[in-house]
C-alpha cells in the first residue's frame, strides 16, 4: 500500500505546533524577536519534543517559541497558509486546524482579528491547492470559564464561514469538564460543533464527562478509555469518534511505545478511530508518517485504510457537499 499516494484527512492538528522552523527564524529576524538560537539545527531541538518526554506538560513546553512569532495578522495568515500548503503536498484533501485565539493577543490583536487572519490564510491555500479546511477554536483549560465565553462569543460571527467547532485543550486535570459546562453549552446553542481533548493523560473518566456534560461529538486522543469501562462504552455506543495521534501519544507517555497504542484494539472493536499528527513540528511528523507507523505496526490493510478514511469523512465538521467530494477520492 502506497500511503503517500492515498488521499488523507486530518481532524486534529494544532496551528502553533506546526510551524516551519525556517518561518520562525525569518519572522524573528525581521521583527527582532529574541530566540535561544538563530541556527536552524539548534532551533529544531527547541521545537521538537523527544520521544522520551516525561509527560504532556514537558511536551507542551515546545509551544513557547512558536507563539512568539504568532502575534500579528500577517504572521498568522502566513503560518496558516504554509500549514495547509504542507498538508496539500502530502495529499491531505481536508484538514481541521485548531488554535487558541487568546494566545495571540500579546501585541494588541483582538480575538476577531486573530480568527479572521487564520481564516484568510486557510482560504488562500484552498484557492491555490486541492484542499479544503475548517477551523476549530480552542479554549485553554488553564484559563477561566469566562475566557471560554469570550472565545465562544467572538467566534460566533465566523460560524459557517470557516469556523466550525469549539475545543478545550492544554494540560489535563481530572474533572476539568465541570468548569466549562456553561460556555460549551452556549457554544452548542450557537451552532458550534464540539470536540474535547480528554483521556490523554491517564484519566478515562474525563472522556465520560466530556460526552455527558459537554456533549462532545469527538474526543481528542481518548487513549485512556482503555482503563475506564464507562468511558469506553459511551464512546462506542454513542459513535463518538477518537482523534488519535500516535507519535504525540508516545512522546507524552500516554503509551510507552507504538506497539502498546490501543488504536488497533479500538478499531477492531468497532470504535471509530482516526489518525492525525497533533503537531507536525513538535512531533516531527506528517500524516503519511503517522499512517505508515500504525499500518506497519499492526499489519493493517487497504480495507482498514478505507474504513479509517471514511471515519474521518463522517466525523469531520465539513458540510455535506464537501463530505461527498471527499468520498470520491477513494474511488
TrEMBL record:
The record marks 221 as: Important for catalytic activity. Zn(2+) binds at residues 12, 14, 197, 278. One of its GO terms (cellular component) is cytosol. One of its GO terms (biological process) is nucleotide metabolic process. Its cofactor is Zn(2+). One of its GO terms (molecular function) is adenosine deaminase activity. CDD domains: ADA. InterPro entries: A_deaminase, A_deaminase_dom, Ado/ade_deaminase, Metal_Hydrolase. Substrate binds at residues 14, 16. It comes from the Bacteria. SUPFAM superfamilies: Metallo-dependent hydrolases. It catalyses: 2'-deoxyadenosine + H2O + H(+) = 2'-deoxyinosine + NH4(+); adenosine + H2O + H(+) = inosine + NH4(+). Keywords: Hydrolase, Metal-binding, Nucleotide metabolism, Zinc. Belongs to the metallo-dependent hydrolases superfamily. Adenosine and AMP deaminases family. Adenosine deaminase subfamily. Catalyzes the hydrolytic deamination of adenosine and 2-deoxyadenosine. This is Adenosine deaminase. It comes from Neobacillus bataviensis LMG 21833. The lineage of its organism: Bacteria, Bacillati, Bacillota, Bacilli, Bacillales. The gene is add.
Amino acid at each position: 500500500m502506497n500511503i503517500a499516494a492515498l488521499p488523507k484527512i486530518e481532524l486534529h492538528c494544532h496551528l502553533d505546533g506546526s510551524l516551519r522552523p525556517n518561518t520562525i527564524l525569518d519572522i524573528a529576524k525581521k521583527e527582532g524577536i529574541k530566540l535561544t538560537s538563530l541556527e536552524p539545527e539548534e532551533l529544531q531541538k527547541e521545537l521538537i519534543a523527544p520521544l522520551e518526554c516525561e509527560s504532556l506538560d514537558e511536551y507542551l513546553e515546545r509551544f513557547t517559541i512558536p507563539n512568539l512569532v504568532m502575534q500579528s495578522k500577517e504572521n498568522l495568515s502566513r503560518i496558516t497558509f504554509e500549514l495547509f500548503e504542507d498538508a496539500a503536498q502530502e495529499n491531505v484533501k481536508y484538514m481541521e486546524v485548531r488554535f487558541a485565539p487568546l494566545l495571540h493577543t500579546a501585541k494588541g490583536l483582538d480575538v476577531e482579528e486573530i480568527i479572521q487572519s487564520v481564516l484568510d490564510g486557510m482560504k488562500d491555500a484552498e484557492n491555490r491547492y486541492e484542499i479544503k479546511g475548517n477551523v476549530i477554536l480552542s479554549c485553554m483549560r488553564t484559563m477561566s470559564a469566562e475566557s471560554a465565553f469570550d472565545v465562544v462569543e467572538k467566534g460566533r460571527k465566523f460560524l459557517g464561514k470557516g469556523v466550525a467547532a469549539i475545543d478545550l485543550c492544554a494540560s489535563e486535570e481530572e474533572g476539568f469538564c465541570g468548569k466549562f459546562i456553561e460556555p460549551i453549552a452556549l457554544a452548542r446553542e450557537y451552532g458550534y460543533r464540539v470536540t474535547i481533548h480528554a483521556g490523554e493523560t491517564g484519566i478515562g473518566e474525563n472522556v465520560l464527562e466530556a460526552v455527558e456534560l459537554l456533549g462532545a461529538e469527538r474526543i481528542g486522543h481518548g487513549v485512556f478509555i482503555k482503563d475506564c469501562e464507562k468511558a469506553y462504552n459511551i464512546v462506542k455506543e454513542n459513535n463518538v469518534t477518537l482523534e488519535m495521534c500516535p507519535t504525540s501519544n508516545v512522546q507524552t507517555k500516554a503509551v510507552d511505545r507504538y506497539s502498546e497504542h490501543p488504536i488497533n484494539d479500538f478499531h477492531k472493536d468497532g470504535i471509530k478511530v482516526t489518525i492525525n499528527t497533533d503537531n507536525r513540528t513538535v512531533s516531527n511528523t506528517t500524516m503519511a508518517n503517522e499512517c505508515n507507523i500504525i499500518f506497519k505496526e499492526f499489519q493493517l490493510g487497504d480495507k482498514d485504510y478505507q474504513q479509517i478514511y471514511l471515519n474521518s469523512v463522517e466525523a469531520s465538521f465539513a458540510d455535506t457537499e464537501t463530505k461527498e467530494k471527499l468520498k470520491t477520492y477513494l474511488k
